[in-house]
Every structure is written in C-alpha cells, then in structure tokens.
C-alpha cells in the first residue's frame, strides 16, 4: 500500500497574521530604541534597556536588526523617514512660492522643536562622525526628498522672477536646517549663556521670524 505524502501549506490568513505580528514586534523595538538612544546615546543605550522598554527580549533585537549597530542604523533611518513623511504632508501652493517657502521654514523649525529625539540621535551620530548613517542604503533617498521640496519651490520662484537666479536648493536647505538645528541642540547652554529662556514660546517665535526674514532676504530679488 502506497501512502501519498500530503503537502501542508499555510493558509494566507495564518501567514498574514504572522507577518503582521513580526512587523508589530519590529516596530515596537524600533520605537523603544529611538526613545532609549535619544535619552542615553548609542553607548548608554544598552540592549537591555531597549528590550525592557519594548517589553521584548535581546534575542529579538538580534533577529530583526542583527546587532546594536544595525538597530542604531535603523533608528536613524526611521527618524529621517518620519521627518520626510511629515514634510510630504505640507500643502504647498507653488503658485505662491514665497508663502510656500515660509511654510517650509516654519515646518523645519517647528519639527526640530517638537521632536527632540530627532536632534538627540543626530547629535549622537555626529559625535561618531556619521559612521552609522554612512552604512544606510536609504540615507541619500531621504536627503533627495527633503531638498526636493525646496528645489521645486525655488525653481518656481525663479521662473516667476521673485527669487534670485543661480541659488542652489542644497544651500537654502543647509541655511534653514543649520539655523534651526543649532538653536535646538544648544538651547540649554545658550539659555544659561544668554540669560534668556530659549524654550520660551515668545523667544522661539522671535527666532522663527528672524530666520524666515533672513532666508527670504537671501532668496528675493531686491526691488
């Protein structure tokens, strides 16, 4: 008597459920890692702390991310992804490039203020001379998206005769980002140094006005 082998196949429902569970576990670990790395940095952000924050186990970190460095690369990619996702949601009217540029400037400054984890993790990576972000396969894609928003606005403004020709979107991005980043990353020491609370909404608003005015003065053709 010949017994035929039965092929056991997983139902799409079971496979889908496992995939969703795996994604949930990975996402939970990644969110926990961002919180821990932003508070303790790479050296102080131990796998034990991350596992505890994620209510998971160290072995799951190794399974999904390879090691601690791999997890830190993923954390960097995730904070950039969040930034780009938020920026992509901006409702820009390119028929009014000046208003669009004002909106972009406000978005960047407010995002840096409202997402201290973004600043903290980038501070840690800069202390490490960018050794992790350089391993990312998506870092360049993130920068293209971030600068692309400014580039489109700059092109329209130039075509309309509002913005000076010859300006590079990279330079405008660096101008906005550096002014916003420096303020947020140094706000505690600058508060003590200047004797003014840089976390005050009033002072932040004054700085936002100054940055906006400075960028537009750089862009606009003098009448």
Describe the structure.
With 223 residues, the chain is mainly alpha-helical. It has two domains: 15-66, Orthogonal Bundle (Arc Repressor Mutant, subunit A); 74-219, Tetracycline Repressor, domain 2, CATH 1.10.357.10. The protein contains ten helices and no strands. It has helices at residues 12-44, 47-54, 58-65, 68-88, 97-114, 116-127, 139-159, 169-185, 187-194, 201-219. Helix 1 (12-44) packs across helix 4 and helix 5 (97-114) packs antiparallel against helix 10. It is globular. Mean pLDDT is 93; it is low at 1-6.
Based on the model shown, name its key terms:
Arc Repressor Mutant, subunit A, 2 domains, 74% helix, globular, transcription, TetR family transcriptional regulator, repressor, Tet_transcr_reg_TetR-rel_C_sf
Detail the topology: elements first, then pairings.
Blueprint: H1 12-44, H2 47-54, H3 58-65, H4 68-88, H5 97-114, H6 116-127, H7 139-159, H8 169-185, H9 187-194, H10 201-219
Helix pairs in contact: 1-2, 1-4, 1-6, 3-4, 4-6, 4-7, 5-7, 5-8, 5-10, 7-8
Domain HTH tetR-type: 23-83
InterPro entries: DNA-bd_HTH_TetR-type_CS, Homeodomain-like_sf, HTH-type_TetR-like_transc_reg, HTH_TetR, NicS_C, Tet_transcr_reg_TetR-rel_C_sf
Biased composition (Polar residues): 1-13
């Amino acid at each position: 008597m010949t017994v035929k082998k039965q092929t056991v196949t997983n139902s799409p429902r079971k496979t889908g459920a496992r995939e969703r569970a795996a994604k949930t576990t990975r996402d939970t670990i990644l969110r926990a890692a961002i919180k821990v790395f932003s508070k303790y940095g790479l050296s102080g952000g131990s796998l034990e702390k991350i596992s505890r924050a994620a209510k998971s186990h160290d072995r799951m970190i190794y399974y999904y991310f390879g090691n601690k460095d791999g997890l830190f690369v993923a954390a960097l990619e995730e904070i950039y992804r969040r930034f780009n996702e938020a920026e992509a949601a901006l409702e820009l009217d390119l028929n009014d490039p000046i208003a669009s540029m004002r909106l972009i400037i406000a978005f960047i400054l407010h995002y840096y203020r409202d997402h201290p984890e973004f600043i903290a993790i980038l501070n840690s990576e800069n202390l490490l001379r960018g050794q992790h972000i350089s391993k990312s396969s998506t870092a360049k894609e993130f920068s293209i998206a971030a600068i692309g928003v400014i580039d489109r606005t700059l092109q329209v403004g130039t075509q309309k005769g509002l913005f000076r020709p010859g300006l590079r979107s990279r330079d405008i991005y660096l101008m906005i980002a550096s002014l916003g980043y420096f303020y947020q990353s140094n706000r505690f020491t600058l508060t003590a140094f200047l004797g003014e609370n840089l976390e005050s909404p009033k002072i932040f608003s004054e700085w936002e006005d100054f940055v906006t005015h400075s960028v537009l003065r750089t862009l606009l053709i003098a009448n």
